[in-house]
Amino acid sequence: MSLNIGLIILLSILLVLILIILIVKKFNGPMTNLTHSMDGKVVLITGGTRGIGLETAKDLLRQGATVIVTSRNKVKAKTVIENILKNLTNYESIKYVVEQVKLKYGKIDILINNAGSCFQNFTVSDGIELTYYTNHLGHLILSFLLLDSFNEKGRIINVVTTKYKRIKEETLNEFTSDSNLDFSWNKKNYNWMKTYILSKLAGVHLSQYLKNFCKEKAVNNVKVVSVHPGFINNHFFREIESHSFYWYWRDFFQSPYRWLCFKDNVTGAQTTLHCCYMDWDKLSNGDYYRDCHLEPLKPIGLLKNAKKLIAFDKAIIEKNNIVKGDQKVMQVFY
């Protein structure tokens, strides 16, 4: 009898271990099987001093690339090979990045719009809500200022989230309405998660819009894609959650789940790297990659809605005089 009980316990433990392994394997996603010599290639990564941005930079360096990162943190930026100590929340900083890249390198091969922030409280810079500015608007301005500085077979990779699918069209319409040019839509009852997801949907839209813009303007040497890195067990949301007693305890109890089901930074960088190393002719322009493979976009991410959001971007840029009348930026809003 005791032997049977012992056997049942042993089998139960084995079953639990197998289940844990399967869960970890499912959620961790694949590693890219592509490698490519990056000798002579210049790559600019926003937010490349920690997290998946840093792991992306390290892998590209191993393949021989010259890697430039932007950073808000002077100490952390010292640990990366090349850095430009500016952030993406004001036009002068973005313009400085572009000027320095052109001065030192002339041309680049890949721009990875990886920087992402999330703010617990409603915060503005230049009249723009800060999460939206950092995660999208700064990348839009940077991308268009650099568009004439790509070598042949250039790539722009926008790091987004699969949660973009949660945004309904009526929510997007409300967000992009003229009545929201001061971001009052979310000011009274600020929902940082909703704001974050909207800013990442905007990254999907930027890929769609840039593809269409390049086609209409006969810019044939650049492709643009969006990538979802997966859900990452790193610093990102903890920095927001740590401000609250409730979030502290929620994080504590969720830690085992995150350890099992979330990716680490190395695994999270794989889809970005996959799109860096993939043969340029096979890269699906304007589209969305997840777990190192192409995934169809949901309707909310398509060009019709992208044009709606980019028109909103134009309106807030003009209202707040963000780019100081710089026609190189304004000409993109056709």
From TrEMBL:
Residue intervals passing through the bilayer: 6-24
Record keywords, A-Z: Membrane, Oxidoreductase, Transmembrane, Transmembrane helix
MF terms (GO), sorted A to Z: oxidoreductase activity
InterPro entries xrefs: NAD(P)-bd_dom_sf, SDR_fam
Top-level taxon of the source organism: Eukaryota
Claim: Transmembrane helix is one of the keywords in the record: yes
UniProt-recorded name of the protein: NAD(P)-binding protein
Organism: Neocallimastix californiae
